[in-house]
Amino acid sequence: MIEQFDEIITDLETRISAIESRTRARKEIDQKRFVYAIRFLITELWKSIYTIPPRKGIVQFNKNYYNSDYCDPNLKYQGVYDAFEGLNLLGLIETERFEKDYEKPQKRGKSTRFWIKPNSELYERLIAIPAHPAQFKRGSLDKRVILRERIGKDKVNVNYTNTPQTMQWEANLACINDCLERHWADLRLTEAMIPDFLERLAGRRRDYNEDRSHFDLSKRTIGRVFAEGRFDRGGRFFGHWAQNIPNKVKEEGDIKYRELITIDGKDTVEYDYETLHPSMLYFLEDKEMGSEDAYSRVLGEEYRKPVKWAFNAMVNSEGNPTRPPRKFRIDDFGGLDWKDVVNKIMDAHKPIASMFYSNKGNELQFMDSQIAEAIMLKYSQQDYPVIPIHDSFIMHHGFGSTGALEETMRKAIYSIMG
């Protein structure tokens, strides 16, 4: 840890302890947890002022959260509560209470949280530290393999007992994340680009768990999220800041910001296996897909992107094929309604017609996540960082120009799928 940061933590421990109305001193283990909680909250505040634009920190006041498998075991409710109350009594933070509805099996309720931000004194002390909070490494105790299932309207993390497989996944993630933290990924923005960058960030979806309208360089590592309460569904990698920056071109002149990512000051390339999921579906049906692009063959190259979206929506859904998805826009398909689009895709992909409306999405994601893990692990073991963007990868530009990354992807696909 940085010396100046440690000095702040020691000072705050002393000041908070001096104003507490305790009749007995904390036990040694509780004192360690109290100091750890102060460090956690101050780190959160330090990160918050370095995001673009600056954001508020979040403090959980749900006791069940601190008993979860996914919470750092050194963080305990009482320690966090005492640290929060002490900072509040010292006037070092501004707070705002809010609640989030939650739903669990046979139980509904509200989870209490607080937005927090530093006052001017604490802000000045944090901003004076001669370092960036992104230089701090992640906690070694963080659980990075996450099992999630949908309960009601919510997707909730589910506790599970480790198996040799989940422990291997954790070990693989540790190797990948260690490599990511040994190297510095950055975004090459000019002053002139920042207003547009912030405007496009502000248009992204927000929720209580992750404010996607902010750019946070401290999110340098990844976790793996499985779906449907099963370890053979989902499994994609999430958490890196590069996954959150605006990249879609909606209007002429829009910048693809992922093209501005650098690693150790060098340009990068993003390689996307364009037709991975269609290829998988044809493989599962033991059919040949042919050489023609899976999406362009439907309505032509002009409508490739919306057809890709519709194709995936059909694979991921089940039920009534005549009902259009919520985001369907008739203008995106040259005036065709949803029924016509479905028929065009079905006609272009007759050999895999049974795969549509089969709810295969999470199953395919598990397969592509295995491929992604194999690729990232191979390069991380050689100290070459790889940033995953779902079914594409960002690496130093040299790997794209030589074809090395593409060849590694092909080998991983054949290895996983046989």
Number of strands: 12
**Mean pLDDT level:** 87
Class from secondary-structure proportions:
alpha+beta
| Separate helix tally | 14
**Widest sheet, order of strands:** 6-9-10-12-11
What fraction of residues sit in β-strands?
15-25%
- CA-based gyration radius: 24 Å
Name some characteristics of this structure.
single chain; 418 residues; alpha+beta; 4-stranded mixed beta sheet; 40% helix
Describe, in plain words, how this protein is organized in 3D:
It is a single chain. With 418 residues, this protein is an alpha+beta fold. It has helices spanning 3-19, 28-50, 63-66, 77-89, 120-127, 164-182, 194-202, 276-284, 296-299, 304-316, 338-348, 361-380, 397-401, 404-417, and strands spanning 57-60, 93-104, 107-118, 145-151, 154-157, 185-187, 223-226, 234-238, 261-263, 266-272, 387-389, 392-396. The strands form three sheets. It has a five-stranded antiparallel sheet with strand order 6-9-10-12-11.
